[in-house]
Amino acid sequence: MKQAVPDNSILQSYGIRDATIKPIGSGLINHTWQVSTDSNQYILQQVNPMFDEAIHEDIDYVTNFMSNAGKCIPRLLRNQSEQLFYRHKNIVWRLYEYIPGITFDTVTQPGLAYEAGRILGEFHQLLNSMDYQFKNIRPGVHDTGRHLQLLEDSLNRQKNHPRYKEIRTLGIEILNQAETLNALPNTETRKVHGDPKINNFLFKQDSLEALCMLDFDTLSNMQIILELGDAMRSWCNPNGEDEPSSIFLLESFQAGLEGYQKSSNNLLTDTEWTAILPATLTIYMELAARFCADALNENYFAWAPDKYQSHSEHSQARATSQLNAAKSLLQQYKDAECILNQLR
Length: 344
Prior knowledge:
This protein is α+β, with helices and mostly antiparallel strands. Helix content is 44%, strand content 13%. The chain has 2 domains: 8-97, Phosphorylase Kinase, domain 1; 110-343, Aminoglycoside phosphotransferase (APH), C-terminal lobe (Aminoglycoside 3'-phosphotransferase, Chain: A, domain 2, Alpha-Beta Complex). The chain has 11 helices and 10 strands. Strands 1, 2, 3, 4, 5 and 6 form a 6-stranded antiparallel sheet that branches.
């Protein structure tokens, strides 16, 4: 999605005038700005058209539910027409409350993973206590087989891509590694955040204490083991998904699980708990396949032209990062299993 330039009419629809706007964040999907006036601050987002407008009803319900339960969370604000978003020049914009704090793109110390786990466990517990059915339906979000097939199809279709040879080598390795994945148990679906990577958590500026989760476009019903696998693949890779030299850090794995266990009130069944590890491997390989396919198709993820020469190069780096982190986890798999068993 091409980044638009917010103009005054968007903010005026919310009754905001004489504001300064600066871009923030490193999201791959939406574009985000901090809006400041003399008396208030807000978060403005340009919403990717991949998201159905119905998601705003879900965000509104969830953020108000959490806020009414006494939890810190940025609520979605209505404009002067009492709408949850504003459409301008065929682009959907929305405004959130601003909560001061900082975000991290990587977990540089286990304490961050512990706090993220604590907040995620709390979020899951409250989310699954709601008597509410999501309006926005996201079927097949973690359909690993579909993403692997997309990679295979892309390798067959994009043979004229200028970087095809090196991307093909990586793609074949990803597909071969994916064949070794163990099947995940067929557990019940639960309400989840949908994207629990570390930069979707807000922390206090002067400590490691986590305040809340951010970005709720991915709210959905799915197996909670996939949510936790996605969390661990993010929290346990201290080098980040842009760095090919990625590793899986057991200290962060243990800390994240301890934080989650503290606040989730035994939400997980024994089957779900033991499935966290194979689910983490599954998500690593799924994301590796998605990034590798995008290195050929160049049509989905945002990329950083200040760091990479092309969209393809950036996506290839991300795919390599996911694959190498998966290899690192496999080398430590027995130790990770021991941590799971000791914490249960």
